[in-house]
Structures are given as structure tokens and as C-alpha cells.
Amino acid sequence: VFDDEEESKLSYTEIYQEYQALVEKLLEGYLKEVGINEEKFQEAFSSPLAKTHTSQAILQTVLAAEDFRLFKEMMVQKNIEMQLQAIRIIKERNGVLPDCLTDGSDVFSEIEQQEMKILREVLRKSKEEYELEQERRRTKE
């Protein structure tokens, strides 16, 4: 359903609301199962450790329930991954891609370029976060 266009569709909002309800239900069940109340979770969630790049990546699905922009980015990325997987499966089964999927152009190179663009952006942000963290540590010392 999700595409990389700037404008969000009404269906995105409906899916986002369903996603929020699902995450809330799963999170409540998990917290209850491990014996952590919502206050303790909020405290841990807002701790400096939860702000690290690694923690943010792990908590992305939870964070996306509170941030529509992040949710949409995550869904667009997942859509790209699913499309790539489908193309790979078709190519594995048939040996080549049908003309309707290539349309005279190199589908893989276009998709790979998108992936490389995303990867470069992720690496850039990761480097910035790392440098900021190193600067904070130096300042504390």
C-alpha cells in the first residue's frame, strides 16, 4: 500500500491507527508478562541508553507507533524490501525477469540505486550520532 510519494493517502491513516492499537496491545501484554508497569517502561524508554543508535533501531517499531513520519518511512522501506524479494524469487524460478517487469530498463540497477541512497543516508546519520556521542563523552571527561 505504501509508496514513496510526499502526500500521504487516507488509507495510510487507517493502517497507522491499526498499527498503533496492535503495538499498544502487544506492548501491554509483554510488560504484564515480564512484570514491568507502564511508569517503569516510560522511565527506561526515556533513559540515555534508549537514545543510542542501536537502541533506536531496536525500538523503531515501538517508536513508529508514536510517530507517523517514522511509521511511513518504515512501511515504505518494508515495501521496497518485499518488492525486491518478489523480483529475486521470480528471477530464481524463471532464470530471467519477464519483459513486463523490466520494461526495457534495468530494474535491479534502479532498485539498487534506491537502496544505496537509503544506505548512504543511514550511514551518514549513524556517523553523525556516533560523532555526537563521542563529543559528549569527551565533554564529560
Automatic annotation (TrEMBL):
Primary location: other
UniProt keyword annotations, A-Z: Cell projection, Cilium, Coiled coil, Cytoplasm
The organism's place on the tree of life at top rank: Eukaryota
InterPro entries xref list: BART_dom, BART_sf, CFAP36
Boundaries of every BART domain copy: 1-83
Localization: Cell projection, Cilium; Cytoplasm
Keyword Acyltransferase included in the entry's annotation: no
Gene3D superfamilies: ADP-ribosylation factor-like 2-binding protein, domain (1.20.1520.10)
Cellular component per GO, a single term: axoneme
Coiled-coil segments: 109-136
Listed Pfam families: ARL2_Bind_BART (PF11527)
Family indicated by similarity: Belongs to the CFAP36 family.
Protein name: Cilia- and flagella-associated protein 36
